[in-house]
Amino acid sequence: METFDAVSPLDYRYYGENQELFEQLKPFVSEGSYVTYLLKVEATLVQAMANKGICSPKIAKEVEQAYNRVTPAEVYREEQRIQHNIRALVNCLKAKISPPAMPYIHLFATSADIMDTAAALRFKELTHKVIIPHLNKLERLLIKITRQGKDIVQMGRTHGQHAVPITFGFGMAEYVSRLGNRIEAIRLAADNLRGQLSGAVGAYNSLALVGRELNIEPDDFEREFLNLLGLKPASHSTQICEPEYVADLAYAVTSCFSVLANLADDMRHLQRTEIQEIVEQPDKDRVGSSTMPHKVNPKDFENVKSLWKAFMPRMNTVFMDQLSEHQRDLTNSASSRFLMEVMVGLVCATHRLTSVMSKITINEAAISHNVNLSKNQCVAEALYTLLAVYGHPDAHECVRKLAQRCREKGIQLNEQMWKEAAIKPYLDKFSAKQKEVLLNPEQYVGTSARKAESVCSLWEKRLFDTPDR
Hints:
Blueprint: H1 9-12, H2 19-29, H3 31-51, H4 57-67, H5 72-82, H6 85-94, H7 111-148, E1 153-158, E2 161-167, H8 168-191, E3 194-195, H9 205-214, H10 218-228, E4 232-233, H11 244-270, E5 278-280, H12 299-311, H13 314-320, H14 339-357, E6 360-362, H15 364-378, H16 380-389, H17 395-409, H18 413-416, H19 424-427, H20 432-439, H21 448-464
Parallel strand pairs: 3-4
Antiparallel strand pairs: 1-2, 5-6
Helix pairs in contact: 2-3, 2-7, 3-4, 3-6, 3-7, 3-10, 5-6, 7-8, 7-14, 7-21, 8-11, 8-21, 11-12, 11-14, 12-14, 16-17
């Protein structure tokens, strides 16, 4: 199939279009990689048997060498013939080994043991080798931008309206914190993925049948087998592994996607012509509009939000996949296959957001202009707070009416307040520093700079101050 014959935009437009991203993801997300993971689990099971003396090390070595020679294409051809994916895999593996080794392939296992264990291993390795490194790269960039802007006074906004001043870095620190939390949640969920080797209905029936003769205890053998793969056993299984382990990872990934979408949306609005507090440096050949040559659209920020809209609803499917009748049914056999697309979508969005965030500059002139638009009115909160602290019985209503009158007459609140006889006795009690803030509202930023720095330092320590990160 040619690239442009593909159905999914992921294949022909997003990760498939980017060779570097494609090569990073391919070992984990492709259908070929899934077959390879299934084969690895089958081979590891034979190795676990060899470790317990059930078969010889020679047989385990033979199977290990053979599984690398099985191709996804031949497994699929065999599945078309017999109409069963795991038995097809077993048949293809057996075809590559000697008769003495054949009895040990898939021994004690049921299909779900292999599939659920392979899925856990696959998601865990994808998370640690691709997803988290990409998220870490974005997090480091956000920390850098936060520190660059931690002292640049910006007008804080609530409900899209000017509120009170903060700093640009303080606003960015929100995303340093939110993304840091999601990285930790994703890592924790990935490390908690579980496998199993519990048999046809999860009760270790076949292992228990011969366990005494083979000198193995079913639970211990399952644990030793999974340990070879770097996994732990599920607390309990029917035929399938408890679905909440994967659901927890899916939720952590989806909620992380939401953080990226929110960041992209905020950046897109800060880039609006009438705000322009950030400026993107586009590639020189980039076209912004098919008819308006002057435009440079925030397409990458918009793309991240658009990808989120496509993949966020998939979480509903994950929740529905938690339901399975009795020991197992096949109502999630197709739907669960699409979960990998959410992981790929997150990586694509992270890569794109990192790329565009590396091209923005903070427009200090525009930020200062926007602060000056309303700073003298936004001092109302500071005035109300001080009046209340110094004993005014109804400070909020007093300042609200004063602000309304100033707005109607087109005069500045922080100029008019000094002329109000009713509040002069309270103004006289203000300290010199407090009066200075009222006269210069850009100083009314609280602990913005300090908080921005502390958030950066916190997440650097939590995410990066260990040798393996």
